[in-house]
User: What shape does this take?
Amino acid sequence: MEETTKCELVLHINGEQRTVITRQAETLLFVLRDELGLTGTKPGCLNGDCGACTVLVNGTPIKSCMMLAIETVGKEITTIEGLRDTPIQHAFVRHFAFQCGYCTPGFIMNIHALIEQHPNADQSTIQEWLQSNICRCTSYQEIEAAVKEALQAKKTDIQPSHNRISRV
Amino acid sequence: MAVGKSIIRKEAWDKVTGRAKYTNDFKEQGMLHAKLVTSPYAHARIISIETHEALAAPGVRAVLTGKGLPLTGEDMRDRPPIAADKVRYYGEVVAVVVADTLVQAEQAARLIRIVYEPLPAVGSPREALKEGAPLLHEELDRYERNKTTYPEPGTNIAHRTKIRKGDIKQGFAESDVIIETSVSFAPSDHVAMETRCATAEIWPDGSIHISASSQSPFMIKRLIHTYFGEEAGKIVVHTPLVGGAYGGKAPVQLELLAYLATKAVGGRKVSVWNNRECDMVTSPVHIGLEATVKIGATKDGVFKAMEIVFLFDGGAYSDKAIDVSRAAAVDCTGPYHVEHVWCDSLCVYTNRPYATPFRSFGHCEQSFAVERAIDELAKVLQLDPWDVRRKNAIRPGHTTPTQVRLTKSNVGDMPACLDRLRELMRWDEWQRIELDAYTVRAKGISGGWKTSTIDTDSSSGVILTFNSDGSVNVISGVVEIGTGTKTVLAQIVAERLKMNVDDVHVKMDIDTQTTPEHWKTVASRGTFMAGRAALAAANDAIRQLKEIAACVLRVTPDDLEVGFGRVFLRDDPAIFIPVKDIAYGYKFPNGNAIGGQVIGRGHYILRRLTPLDPETGAGKPGPEWGVCAEGVEVEFNRRDYTYRIVKAYAVIDAGKVLNPKAALGQAMGAMSMGLSFASREGFLFDEAQRVLNPQLRTYRPIHFGEHPTYIVEFIETPQIDAPYGARGIGEHGLLGMPAALANALSLAAGVPLNELPLVPELIWRKQKGDSYGSL
Assistant: This one.
């Protein structure tokens, strides 16, 4: 059996340029995780059903198990490791919007894009965007509360506090 | 102080930044990868396995088959880690390919040629118990088992638990009315978002290093010793954060394969990682059930007798399913006082994926059966279903089905839960209303209770080490599976040491070499057992701090208090020494020193628990019974049989709420899981017992936007032995959901709905009769 051909890819990830040598058939998910050590992006089903592996490609949420790495050349990729102190991360912490934390990066990437693209998102827009991700620990009510607070924070342009509060 | 506050979980920022690492996130250069080759048949004899071609494929280092391996299983050793002579369920592991990369392993797996001779497959417990049904385990009489497992050789019965309390004949004789209800549901899955993963390697000194996504790192150690004769001391298990478990990561399965794989490649590190399909079918699943409940009652609705038969679908191997079937029997009546109880709970072999704990451990299954029957009884007697439950609610002074006398401490306040539920749901205003020609709203309720049925000698240990700044590290064997227990332990320690919880650090990962044992992170017993151990460890640390301070301050330790970062004289707090000055011992100005690092240690072991009597079931299975009352409001469309879950309610006796937001999260998350299971989850089997929907596209858990509004309240009736009175709450939210949803929909549709999942087609079928066949 022949080894599949490998290729060199130059990717733009979280504002950095990264070079990898990988199989042409490799998905973005495994290149991020195995070649670049960005393990915040989680495999859940490898079938586009659960949303755990969601990253942003040119600002659009994409399930990285469904996209070849080679397709992302020349595009800006953002993973959970590229987000710091965003309103949605703070809101997730405050609202206990996660438990085991495994689906969390995917949810946060998706919601971050939602907030950027639809700062005035109404209930039905929120619903449409978030139904692509599965959380098995929370009731989703906590996530809903976090999304709404983060949207509000974005609207009123409140800068998140850098002091990480441990009590609410 | 710290207890009673919504302290943010200690690993919160790791989890929202991608820093949090799970088993499969730890990659190593040179690590090998395994691919599981699984059975396409549910029941077949293995005629031959041809592995030559696979072994010759690029990158392949080993191919493992099942020949010559010991049998495994926690209660009864009936399962080969890799199928040897025959396969007993669709998805069972038949071979394991180990290669340099996962892609190479997958490619080589396709080159393995296996010849099967298919056998007739057994599809449900009732089918398995029929005369002449194919036997799954011809050697049932020869399996090694523990003393509390009672298989019935020559049948497909792996275990039977008998409950005999009072005199069932007398109970029915005293009854004005007797109703009988049967329920059923197929096996389903936990669907943790992190699929299971295990890695193993053997170092040159012979030590075995395993990493596993598991609720039971200490059990892995014990079982590898038991099964393979390895020295327990040489087995080290590492468990980082776990991405959801819900009982599904309590059994030990992939760890055994990883161990066998590393042995086959000279000790090199091998990773065994489930894809979603294997995680749903090959690894153990949520148990299925067929049950019949007969209730005898007076015309006022007072229960006189309950006769219950549980036929649990344990699947192909008994493993933990035996225990689940026993747990349902232990609490078979639900949270009600019944004088005369007769229950047979069977763990039955079928050619289906094998079962293991699922959050609530037999109790949402038990309550679905009994609570449906209670609603049917209320209907026959024309009584309010809430009134019937309230009238029979369990109280201190009553006895449980296994004849444990209940006290104010060891049982929660069931009447109070029901009373509060009635107010929250506005039960008395309406239970069914028609909004228009097609739209009906209806409410349904359920009671729930649960005790744990874990090993009678289960224990937990905690070590507290002090840092030179006076802060404390908590080291506990509880796995952080998402429940936030380790943060709660930090709160308990902070409360006892009267210190800021920010100064209590938590060791998240488990390493069985340095972490004290916690039996398993299961059964809602983490806070109770590890909490008791943490209190003991804190007390031990306080004693040491006082001893050192007494010497420095020239007082007796008895006159000292520890708190607020100081050890001070109770009588005059102005006389003190900061904890940080003595946390590593104390150095006098002349250089002399006393003490040393303060290391608090504590442990807790369950006390005075007993196995059940094989004939009557009498015995004490667990330390306390937590109770709850739950309800669901649905909006049902009579035209197309669809429905929306509008509201879900739970009132749970938490004993004491240690972290309000975390407790709410546990309750609501469990409710969500219960509603998802009841409304849309379950494996679909074809006639040959192959699973048709082992993917999240075809097996679709509840998604965002499909969730109802959750209303949760806690009652606080302390369990006086528990840390600050707290009772287990990780599972109760789930307990009543299937039954409450079924009761609401039965009322809405006007037809008894006794099967799960409650999909529109099922409701349509029940209303129209089964004459239409399938869509």
Q: What stands out?
A: The radius of gyration of chain A is 17 Å. Chain A has a mean pLDDT of 93. Residues 87-155 of chain A form a domain with the DNA polymerase; domain 1 fold (CATH 1.10.150.120). Chain A touches chain B through 59 residues (CB under 8 Å).
